[in-house]
Design goal:
Elements: H1 2-12, E1 17-27, E2 30-41, E3 45-54, E4 64-75, E5 78-90, E6 94-102, E7 105-112, H2 135-138, E8 141-142, E9 157-162, E10 167-181, E11 184-185, E12 187-201, H3 208-215, E13 220-225, E14 231-241, E15 244-257
Parallel strand pairs: 11-15
Antiparallel strand pairs: 1-2, 1-15, 2-3, 3-4, 4-5, 5-6, 6-7, 8-14, 9-10, 10-12, 12-13, 13-14, 14-15
Length: 268
């Protein structure tokens, strides 16, 4: 029993950390937007919040901003969301999603404006809202084991995601190890994963964007660590588009192990 208690304490001591990230978005090398990502993982709870807005030349044509936030519990190093909210607004439209979850199942959700129900759309059933993660929680990827997190095992997984309008799978596969150097914060190794998209429900299969995303084979996500945890999160995301490569990349990536997570804090 003593060994089990000590083992559990050791697990808690490496499961608390923070991320303060700033990201730039470009499309074909042209500035598209900027955003921030704040993550706080504690012994028994976590929060994650993303916000962003259009920037650069795009603001001459449209203005847009959005935010998403999730909170939930932590048990044995596993994250389980309890609430999720997302809001996107542009000059011409808005999108608002709210969800209440428990043990990977959606208990309540609302989307405004309501999704237009047409015969071609694959219906979402109750089963599609079980055994899922929201988009933000799915981005906090725990590396299995107790050793180095910069290993091929950081990638391979399939994540079932429900975003309030569509149910889809993201499949990750190891590609290589690389290195990054932030303008502020983290400098070091990253794990690069291939990323594949598979729609399940809530979509219209014949729509060009769905076909394009399903057939895409060159998307990548670069994972960097949150200090004090075994969580890896996207540092860079790249996807080919007809207008050039779309890239979301961190310019600031400050991570700190919470003081409760051992003998002190550590910043990368």
């Amino acid at each position: 029993m003593l060994a089990a208690l000590l083992g559990d304490a050791g697990s808690r001591a490496h499961a608390q950390g923070r991320l303060d990230g700033h990201y730039n978005v470009t499309l074909g090398g042209v500035a598209f937007g900027k955003g921030t990502w704040l993550v706080d993982v504690r012994d028994d709870q976590f929060t994650s919040a993303v916000s962003g807005a259009t920037s650069g030349v795009l603001r001459l044509f449209t203005r847009g901003q959005g935010s998403s936030a999730v909170r939930g519990t932590v048990h044995a190093g596993q994250l389980s969301a309890t609430s999720y909210a997302s809001s996107i607004a542009t000059d011409k439209k808005y999108d608002d999603v709210r969800m209440v979850m428990s043990a990977g199942a959606v208990k309540e959700y609302a989307a405004e404006p309501p999704t237009i129900q047409i015969p071609e759309r694959v219906p979402i059933t109750e089963a599609h809202r079980r055994g899922i993660a929201d988009p933000l929680t799915a981005s906090l990827m725990k590396v299995p084991g107790n050793g180095d997190t910069f290993v091929p095992e950081a990638c391979p997984r399939k994540v079932a995601i429900f975003d309030g309008r569509m149910r889809y799978d993201l499949q990750f596969a190891f590609k290589r190890l690389d290195k990054v150097k932030s303008e502020k914060g983290y400098q070091g190794a990253v794990v690069v994963c291939a990323l594949y998209f598979a729609p399940v429900a809530g979509h219209v299969p014949d729509r060009p964007v769905i076909k394009y995303l399903t057939d895409m084979r060159d998307a990548e996500v670069w994972l960097a660590p949150i200090a004090g945890t075994r969580l890896m999160v996207p540092y860079r995301f790249s996807v080919p588009t007809p207008l050039g490569t779309g890239i979301v990349q961190a310019t600031q990536f400050l991570t700190t192990a919470n003081p409760q997570a051992g003998n002190g804090s550590r910043t990368q």
